[in-house]
Amino acid sequence: MNAVTSARPVSDVAHATCLGIADLSARARAGAKGPGTAAWLAGLGLPLPARPNSWLALPEGGLIARLGNTEYLIEGNAALVESVLRAPRAAGVYPVLRQDAAFALCGSRVNELLLQVCNVDFRCLAADPALVLLTSMAGVGVTVLRSGDIANPVFRLWCDGTYGHYLATTLLEIAGELGGGGIAPDLLP
Amino acid sequence: MRLPPISGEWIDRATTLSFSFEGKSYEGHAGDSISSALLAADAGMLGRSFKYHRPRSVLSMANHDVNTVCQWGERPNVRADVTPLQAGMALTAVNTFGGLAADKARHLGKFARFMPVGFYYKSFYSKKLFPMWERMFRTLTGLGKVDFATPHLRTAKRYDFCDVLVIGAGPSGLSAALAAAEQGAEVVIVDENARAGGSAGYALGAEAARAAQHAEQLAAVEAHPAIRLLTGTYAAGYYTDHWIPLVDGDVLTKMRARSVVVASGAYEQPAVFHNNDLPGVMLASAAQRLIYRYAVRPMQKAVVLVANQDGYRAALDLAAHGIEVVAVVDLRPEPAAGEAEQAVKAKGIRVLTGHCIVEALPGSHGQSVAGAVVAKTPQPGEMPGSERETLVCDGIVMSVGWAPAANLLYQAGTRMRYEKALEQFVPDTLPAGVFACGRVNGVHTLASRRLDGQRAGSAAAANAGFGAAQAIAVPAETESPSHPWPIVSHPKGKNFVDFDEDLQLQDFQNAVQEGFDNIELLKRFSTVGMGPSQGKHSNMNALRILARLVGKEPQQVGTTTARPFFHPVPMALLGGRGFNPERQTPLQSRHDALGAQWMPAGVWQRPEYYRVANQDRLSCIRSEVTAVRQGLGIIDVGTLGKLEVIGPQAAEFLERVYISKYAGLKVGMTRYAVMCDESGVVIDDGVVARLAEDHFYFTTTTSGAATIYRELSRLNTLWQLDCGIVNHTGAFAAVNLAGPKSREVLGKLTKLDLSSTAFPYLALREGTVAGIPARLMRVGFVGEWGYEIHVPANQGAALWDALMAAGQPAGIRPFGVEAQRLLRLEKGHIIIGQDTDGLSNPYDVGLDWATKMDKPFFVGKRSLQVIERQPRKQQLVGFVLGERFTGQAPQECHLVIENGEIAGRVTSIAWSPTLGRHIGLAFVRPSQAAPGTSIAIRLSDGSTVQASVARLPFYDPDNLKQKEAA
Predict the structure, then answer these.
(1) Can you tell me the distance from the alpha carbon of B161 to that of B456, in angstroms, rounded to the nearest whole number?
(2) CB–CB contact B159 A116 (8 Å)
(3) Which helix (H) or strand (E) holds B123?
(4) Average pLDDT of B897-909?
(5) pLDDT exceeds 80 at position B125
(6) CA separation (Å) from B494 to B140, B151, B338, B505?
(7) Do B158 and A116 touch (CB under 8 A)?
(8) What is the mean pLDDT of residues A174-185?
(9) Domain boundary among A96, A112, A141
(10) What is the CATH number of domain B496-572?
C-alpha cells in the first residue's frame, strides 16, 4: 500500500516545512486484543502503556499503542513485529491482522488541515503527548497520536487500509490548498 | 458627498475603484461599501421596495438594508450596505421591471388599498386558477435571479476551538475578551464588520475622548497574545454544547467554545410615521456609520428624531461634520437632561421636546426628502393634533430606541424578560456557559458597557476553568434608551413598520381585527419579520403595536422564535466541501486495468462488469456468465465482511447469533449462516468456517459488515462470553475462483490436495497459493465448482496476478457483480436486502431448513416461535416466463396481482443465458407457491405478463456441479 506517494509522488522539503503527508503504510505492524493480551505481550518482553488510549516509544524503534482496554498495536522494528506475529496465541489473546493505511502529518499548517477534517481539538495531544485518540477523520475511523517535539509535532494516523486511498486523496487535496503535499518519510522531522 | 478625511475612516483614498450601478459608471474607494460609494456620488435611490416598488435607500448600513440589495453577475442578493466595493463591479438593483428609475411596477403603491394584509390568502385560493396565480406571483416576487449555470464553489469547512468565544467586538465585547484573556483563557472574538469596535467607532457625539478610549481598547485586544480577533465574520447560530457556526467570506467554521459571551449589541429601531421609508430617512447609527467609516455626508440639512441620548449624540456628530441640524425632535415631553442634550443646546440647535414627526415630505418623484412635518406627540393610538410645523430638510435621522440582537441568546435557550425601565427585552436566565453583556444585556451607557463586558468576560473565563469571576457592579441606566411607542398614526398610511414586506401600521390593525391577535399568528398572516432581515427592524414595533391593540404588556405578547441563521449564509458555504468516504479493495488497480465499469455497493466501489470492445453492457455480463459456467471466472469478493471469533465460547457465541447450529461444525468445514434480528427478520447472511475448536472465521454481506460487527460486539459485551470478535474486513483480500476449470488452475499454484475427498464441497483449508498464506473455502454461491480464497490484503494483488496468469490457458474471465447476481439467481440463491425486506422472516424466503428451533436460544427465536404458528402471508418462489416470451419483461419490484389485489412482488429477474429464458424470484401468496402455478405480474404501463412458478434452483438442481463426477 502506498496511497500517498502513488497519488502524488512529491518529496519536497518545502512541503515538509509547510504541510507534509508521508505514507507509512508499508511499516511492519502487529496487533492483538483480548483479556490475555497484556500478559502475553509482557511475556514477549514488550513494555506496555499503563493507561488505555496511550502509547510508548519502543527502545528498538517504533511504538506500542494501547487502543482501549485490551487492544494493542505494535509498529516499527520488523524483527520485533515478526516475533510477535510468530508467537503462539495464548488464552484470551485474539490476534488482529493489521493491514492499515498509515500516514504521518507534519509542518506549520498541519493544525489547519486537522481542523478541516476532524472535530477533535488536537490541542489535547500537546498537553498530554502520550494520548492516543480514536476518532473519525473525514468520515473515516482513525487512530491518532502525536510524536515529534513541541515545535515540530508529527501526527500519526492509522485507518482501515481499504479507506487508505480515499483518506490520502482527501488529505492531499486539502494539503494542496494549504501549500503542502506528499513527502517521503525521511523528510519527517 | 464625500467629507474631508476623518480619523479612523475605513476608506483608502489613494485607491479609486470604478464600478457601475444600473448601467451608470461610478467611482469609489477601497474600503467603501457599495452603498457608501453610491451615496458619496449622490445617488439617492438605491433600490425599490418589495411589494409597492417604492424608492428606497440606506436604512441601517448594518447588513439589514434589504431594500438595497443588488445583483452582481451570477451573485443574487448582494447586500449593498455592507458588501465591500470591488473594482469592475457591474451591479443592478433587484426587484425591478425595466430598471430602477423606470421600474414599471413603481405604480403598484397606488393600488395599495386593494392589497391589504393577507389579501392573497383571500383572493387567490381558487384551486383551478392557482397555477396561474402562482406563476404571476413568482414573476412579481423574489429578489435576485439565480443563475443555474453558476459553478459549484467547493469552499472549505473547518472546525475550531477556543476557551471563550466573544460574539461582537463592540466596547462590551472587547472588554469581555480582554478580561477573559487576562485570566488565562484562549479567546476568540468575532465581529461581522470589516473592523472591530462597533458603535465605539462611530457613536462619538463628536467627543475626541471617546475615540481615544476606543483606539486604546482596540490596540490592547489586538496586541494580546491570547486573543484572536476575527473581523468580517459573523456567528450564524447557536447549537447545543456551544457549537457556533462562524461565517466569513470564504469559509464556514464550526467553533466549539467552553464559554460563550454574547456581546452582539442591539438593532437601532425606526420610528413609524408617514413616508418614513423615503430615501434620506435613516437610522442615526446609519448616518454615523456613513460619516465615520466612509466619510460620506448623508444629507445637507437634517431633522433628528430622538428619544434617547444616542440621538443627541448623533445630532452632534452630524453638526460636527458640516450638516445643518434643523432641529432635534424629541418624542419625550421631559427628557432627563444629559450631557449630549446640553451640548446640542449649547450649539444653538433647536430642540423640540414632546414632539413627533407626523410625516416626511417627499422630494422629486418621491426619491428624496423635502421636509419633516412635526407636531406635539399624541397619546399612543391617537392622531397628532392639527398644530403642525414643517421643517425644511433633505434628511431625517431616527434614534428612538433599540431592540436587543438576542437571536443567539434565544437559540441557546435564554429566557428573556421585558424590562419596563429600559423598554427592552433583556436576558433573565442564561444557559450554563452562556454570558451576555452590553446593549443586548440592557446596558447602553458606554462606560457601563465596558464594565459589563469585563464582568461577563471574567465570568466566562472562570466557567471555562480560568481564574475566578470578578464581582463587578454595573450601574443601572439612568434613562430608558427606547421609547415605548415611537409610532404615529396617519390617515394616508404609508407609515411603514416592516420595510422588507411593505407592512404599514394599518395592516396590523386589520390583522388583529381579523383575529390574528397572537404574535406567531400575526407574523404568519401579515408576514411581518419574514423578509430577508427577519424582523430585525420590525419585530419590536410589531410587538408594541400588537400589545397595545390587545391590551397586553410586551412581556405577555412575547417574541417570535429566532432560528438560525442570523444572516443568510451563502449556498457556496453551506454546500462546501463534503466528505463521502469510499472503500477500495486491494485489487482496485487490477480492475481498472481490465476495464471495470464501477458501481457503488454501500461505501465500496465494485466492478459491475468488465467492458469489452464492441460489446454492450448486457453482452458483457452474459459473456461473463457463460465463462463461469463453461470455463473459469474470478471475482473480487474482498468487500464481504470478514470477522473472527476466538475463544473457548466462540461456538456458543455463534449458536446464539445465527439461526443454524455451529457447535457441531467440524474443524475445516464451513456452513451457511443466516442472522435474524429480535423480531425474526432476516438481516444478514454469510458463511461460517471453523479454523480450530475455539476459532471461527465468518463472512457477512458487503453492506452489513460494519453494522453486524457493531451488533456482535454489543451482544458479546452483553453476554460476557469467553471469546473475542475481530473485524478483519479490510485486512483480507478475497476472490472467488469459480467454474469447471477452477480446480485445475488452482492446482498449479498450491500444494493442497484439491481432490473432492481431501477438499470436499463446503470444506475449509489453510495453505499457500502462489506462495501466499491463504484460507480457502469450497463454496458454491454461483453454482459452479469454486474456491473462495482469502489472503492478507497486502498480498491480494499478487494473488490476483498469479491466478490470472495461471488461468490464462483456461480462458479465465474476471466477472463483476451483475454476472454474479445472475449466476446465483440461476442457482436460486437469495441476496439479503434484494430478495428480502424489512419484514422477511426465514420461513418467507425458504430458509426453514436452516432455522434450528431446537436450539436453546438464538436471536429472533422467540419471535419465530410465534411466527411459525401463524398462517404464512407470503412466500418467495422462483418463476419463469414462457420460453418464447418476447415482450417487455417485468422488472424488480413489479407487483404480482391476483384477483385485482396485490399478491406480491418481483424481487429478482433476469434473462438467463444458461437457460435461455427469463427467470426470477418473487414474493407470492402461499396459495400461489406450488410449482406450475400461473401468476400475473403487472408492468409499469399497467399491462400484465403471465409467469409460472418454478421449482428452485433453476440450474443444477441436484448440485452435481459440486461433485467429482461433474
Answers:
(1) 19
(2) yes
(3) helix B119-123
(4) 97
(5) no
(6) 21, 42, 34, 8
(7) yes
(8) 94
(9) A96
(10) 1.10.10
